[in-house]
Amino acid sequence: MLKGKFAFVTRDDELSLEIKNDLYKFLINNGLVEDVDSPNYVFVIGGDGTVLSAFRKYLDILSDVNFLSIHTGHLGFYTDYQAKDYENLFEDMIVKNPKLESYPLVVVEAYCQNGNLLSKNYALNEITLNNALGSTYIAEIFVDDEHFENFRGDGICISTPTGSTAYNKSLGGAVINPNLDVFQVTEIAALNNLVYRTLGNSIVLSKDEVLTIKPKNQNHNHRLSIDQSYYSFDSLSKVIVTLSKTKKVTFIRYNEVSFWKRVKRSFIGE
Ligand code: NAD
Q1: Do 86 and 116 have their domain in common?
Q2: Which residue from 70, 124, 126, 175 could staple onto 81, CB 3.0 to 4.6 Å apart?
């Protein structure tokens, strides 16, 4: 049985709150203590969006926290237990030793024209960069300071391996096993002509490579999305993305469901 402190991040609907109440009683009866600020375990009840918000809430203490989620939404890519059989979790917690699985995150740094760092953040799924007003986004793309391509199109999506099944997948990017320490760069509707020439395919970068995006019109309306959050910048000189060397997200697994089984369950069907 787990020992230590726990917290909940719960979607605000009747079913999720009901499951939370049951699980709360179970955890307290088994000697765990609620600690919302510095938990060892975060139980997430909801959908993938709830997992993303739980991750963000505990970003500063990520290395101390393990997540376990029960899904009450329509798709539960990150979640292990379904609402209809969530009571299996109680038995699993008593009789099984959990496995911990850690997945890589991307870190994004945005710089303004005088070279100062405007913002630094982490994504569990992906970051995207585009024009806030909907016009085409024009940028030079560098890998490790070497010019790679001139991009012009709707925008650029940079995803983690676990995020590869989210927005990246809709864009035609590859699905990546999250045991690989890599990140993926996928074009969003690139325009290709003699001036703006892009590869057209996603590229997968290693943990040591650095992606730099330099927007052509630095004073335009830049919109940076980080998972569910959106940030606007009037001026941006460059955005640097790498795989985080210091932070990973860790999930508790009582039942070994391979990543590919998870992909099949969510997208192809049993
Ligand atoms: P939302 O309510 O719009 O739902 C997005 C959908 O993506 C949900 O069905 C969710 O279950 C699914 N999803 C989220 N993470 C996933 C993952 N890692 N693998 C597989 N499916 C996943 O938004 P939300 O719940 O707040 O989630 C935000 C996410 O939505 C973003 O991180 C982005 O990946 C995704 N998104 C997708 C598109 C698209 O596919 N065209 C567009 C914008 C955002």
Answers
A1: no
A2: 70
Rounded CA gap, 123 and 163, in Å? Answer: 9
Question: Measured in angstroms, how far is the CA atom of residue 48 from the centroid of ligand 1?
Answer: 7
CA angle in degrees (0–180, nearest 5) for 150-135-240: 45
Phi-psi region of 4 (alpha: psi -120 to 50; beta: other; left: phi over 0): left
How many residues does the structure list for the chain?
Answer: 270
Q: Is 48 a catalytic residue?
A: yes
Q: In the beta sheet, which residues pair with residue 102? A: 250
What's phi and psi for 250, nearest 5 deg?
-120, 130
Domain span including residue 84: 5-98+254-268
Residue 8, token pair as written in the block: 């909940």
Q: For residue 71, how many C-alpha atoms fall within 13 Å in the half-sphere facing its CB?
A: 16
Residue of 16, 69, 167 to test ligand 1 pocket, by largest number of atoms within 8 Å of CB: 167
Q: What is the pLDDT of residues 235-250, one digit of tens each?
A: 899 999 999 999 999 9
| 72 and 130 together in one domain | no
Q: How far apart are CA 9 and CA 26, in angstroms?
A: 16
Same domain, 74 and 121: no
Domain identity same for 138 and 45: no
Provide the β-strand partners of residue 206: 182
Atom of ligand 1 at shortest range from CA of 75: 11
CATH of the domain at 182: 2.60.200.30
Residue 108 sits in the same domain as residue 149: yes
Q: What is the pLDDT of residues 70-125, one digit of tens each?
A: 999 776 788 888 888 889 999 999 999 999 999 999 999 999 988 899 999 999 99
CA distances from 13 to 24, 50, 70 (A): 16, 12, 13
Query: Could you tell me if 119 and 87 lie in one domain?
Result: no
